[in-house]
Amino acid sequence: MLHVDQSQFAADLAAVTKARVYSYTRFSTPEQAQGDSYRRQTDAAARWAKSKGLTLDDRLSFADEGVSAFRGGNAGTDKGLGRFIAACKSGLVPDGSYLIVESLDRLSRMDPHEAQYQLLEIVRSGVAVVTLGDGQEYSTERLQREPFALMIALMVAMRANEESKTKARRVSAAWAEKRRKITARETDKLTERAPGWLRWSSEGWSIVSERGEVVRRVFAMTLQGVGEHKIAQALNIEGVPVFGRGKMWHRSAIAKLLRNPSVIGTLIPGRIEYIEGKRTRVLEQPVVNAYPAVISQDDWLTVRAMKDGETTAVRGRGAKAPLANVLSSLARCPDCGAAMTRVNKGRKGGRPKLVCKPLSQGLS
Asked: What is the DSSP-derived secondary structure letter of residue 247?
């Protein structure tokens, strides 16, 4: 007969079900990560736990760095708060536990009714939310005993949401003024970001000579009938540095370059709008001669005529064919660890196979 140590079993069960204290930290800009925001929020949570005779669970911490809560970006399933809420729903967080935050606006800056729903979602799972800034504790027991506490939470949510709306309006107005100035030729620079072949100085934009030559070469090879994949492969074989942070040239980078109007000096400003809840980039009127042209107008128009006849839609015999590679980029090369790509060298007797992507792009 199996002997069970009842006292040890009770101790183990208590350890598993004992209420815990968790800390959630969030700051909305990457610059705050370099400052005191994270340390301040975590240290305050540890002091609160100690004052209550509890221990802050540092094995499972939740943080969202550089994430805004204005549109609920921190509540996604891949974000810190989203993971905590999922853990609450699944029972991984014991009843009676505490979630410590600096203020309710760390959890949400969404519309007040959405913010309150999110708060109640946590509380109903048996977790009390403690806000250190104003000393409030939102638990099921308190909300049943003091319904007015919900009004406190609602007013905090209203203030946080209005602050975010005001900030969004100011930022939007500032960007609108920048776009107006560059359209009116009152300035030459919209942002510090620019096409990879350009450099900004006090005298304005100038072409980085070696990169400008790469752009011209890509267009020249295209006019000669060389495909995008072959162009990328040639650049990789020759060790031509990429413009961005990538390690090698890809066909997609060549395709984007061939379709980028910046090569003829045209800038197309844009703004971000939320249409039916979806983040959408809205393009404005092009600004010609915003940059120095690296490609002639004739070459640009000729390449555009060549490319405009292409389509990404599947037509003809391939329209009803099964998806070629639903697990794209999941396979990894056992030698170098890079992603592998699926290739098929022909329909007649050819079998698809996985090839190391750097190797397929001309790198060994």
From this structure: S
